[in-house]
Amino acid sequence: MLSPFLAYLLSVLVLCRIARSQYSSDQCSWRGSGLTHEGHTRDVEQVYLRCSQGFLEWLYPTGAIIINLRPNTLSPAASLLSVCIKPSKESSGTRIYLDRLGKLRLLLREEDQAEGRVHCFSIQDGALFIEAVPQKDISRKITAFQYELVNHRPGADPYSLSAPCQPCTDAEVLLAVCTSDFVARGTILGVTQEDDQTSVAVSLSQLYRQKTQVFVSGGGQAKYWTGFMKMPRQCRVKSGEGVFLFTGTVRFGEAWLSCAPRYKDFLRVYQDAKQQGTNPCHLDTD
User: What is the pLDDT of residues 163-184, one digit of tens each?
Assistant: First the structure.
């Protein structure tokens, strides 16, 4: 038979395990429940996430939580990062603020989250302060979003997913070949204007690299891939003939175009750099 002290210690360990299961973080993502928060709703839970991407899911939100997003490695370039979040269309029950040195700035109202649109901000703007909206019935409320840390090219808008519209320099093109989430050669099939962005349909004859499966194989004996790339609407891209080198980033499962020179122009730049020994990396252009 357990002594009173051992019985008490065992009960404490059980409660700690329950708390850990309800408020868990793997450094990339966090899932928690406000049901453990009801008795002390004035307390603010601090959450630290240190990955380039992940998700948050807060069930039955009560009180408030602060989400501190940081890269897993510190460097001077980290201060130039942006944070982009994409709420689930079922996300509700909270308001989301930016908290910089105790000063709050509203980022998303409860009704804004249901739109499921991506919102970006500079990592220097502070942490995310997520405040539960008082509810009579919290059982139907869940706040959920994905996040990504974005490293923009110089001159890009930290409050947007997209790259600036101006053409890339030769040096930027060569660097994009080495660092982009996707690199491909192909043609433009068509352009569709959407609310605040442009969708470019492409056919790819060569897929050098893709971070995730955003482009799909056409199948059969012919070797080609198809897919879509996003651009800001203000860039006013048009359908055009010719072969291009496409580079860009994958954000929330979508391909965003950055540098896209005509392939013949890229070949000239690449060959010149190769002769001078200044290519940052190799690409099979045969």
Answer: 667 788 999 999 999 989 999 9
Q: Are 183 and 265 in contact (CB under 8 A)?
A: no
For residues 239 and 202, give the distance between their C-alpha atoms in angstroms, rounded to a whole number.
Answer: 10
Confidence of residue 255 (pLDDT cuts 50, 70, 90): very high
Between CA 96 and CA 101 the distance in angstroms is 16
Listing DSSP states for 124-177 in one string gives GG-EEEEEEPP-S-GGG-EEEEEEEEE-PPTT--TTSSSPPSSPPPHHHHHHHH
Which pLDDT tens digit goes with each residue over 204-222?
Answer: 999 999 988 999 987 766 6
Cα 239–chain centre separation: 28
Residue written as tokens 């700035």? 105
Phi and psi torsions of 154, nearest 5°: -55, 140
